[in-house]
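User: We ran a pulldown and think these components assemble together. Before we commit to crystallization trials, I'd like a predicted model of the whole complex to look at. Sequences follow.
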Amino acid sequence: MEYLLAFLVGGAICSLGQLLMDLTLLTSAHVLVLFVCLGALLSGLGIYGGLVKLGGAGATIPLTGFGHAMVQGILEEIEAKGAIGILSGSFKNTTVGLVAAIVLGVIMALVFDPKG
Amino acid sequence: MAAENQTRKQQKYQRRVQQKKPKPPVVRNVIAAFVVGGLICVIGQVILNFCCALGLSVQEAGAPTAAVMVALGSLLTGLGWYDELGKFAGAGSAVPITGFANSVVSPALEFKREGFILGVGARMFVVAGPVLVYGTLTSVMVGFVHWLVKSR
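Assistant: Here's a predicted model for the assembly, 268 residues in total across the polymer chains.
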């Protein structure tokens, strides 16, 4: 059931992105920026937390979940340290994914050559 | 007169382009995005549950799950498979965090020939950069509003 919900929620978010790409002039880069902002806004409104409860990884793996993680980091930091948390929280929960992407990006560039 | 002609010609041309341009097969694309995006999230759920089985709380398990998904996305990009998947799945492979990894690794590979500083280093964030800039901006604004409301 957990896996079905992850599939449905994650699939729905991705197909929304596809609809935006096909029916508007937005490119995938625009959609990714839009989604991270949308996730952050919905997180602030307390809506995205509910979606995560429902869909698990289906809500955290899409890029909207990245925006949600940024906001949750800030809210946790505000709770712990006050106003400085506004500036210290964005990357509290997102550092691991980000650093992994940077390190692996360089390693992949060392190991592989572009195809075609 | 000549200028007017030109614009009329341009309009006619635009209309022709609109007519002749193949319409994207929206239904097919949306289904492909749904299935592939959904399956990537199921893989994420499997990894998340595995981390939880190792004794992490759901909150703690988020970071290692993200790391593994980024690693998968990076490796498949290096092998050239993720871009093949992207042709088929569109947003289904672009929107999950594996697609974020792809957006970092893919230009890193492509611009390798321009060197490791101005090629790999500079171009890595060509898509991920805007995502981080506006994600950070939005999250800080949300945090600021939250702090204002909370501290009143």
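Helices of chain A lie at 2-23, 28-44, 47-55, 57-60, 63-81, 85-88, 95-111. That may be worth checking against your pulldown data before setting up trials.

User: Thanks, that helps.
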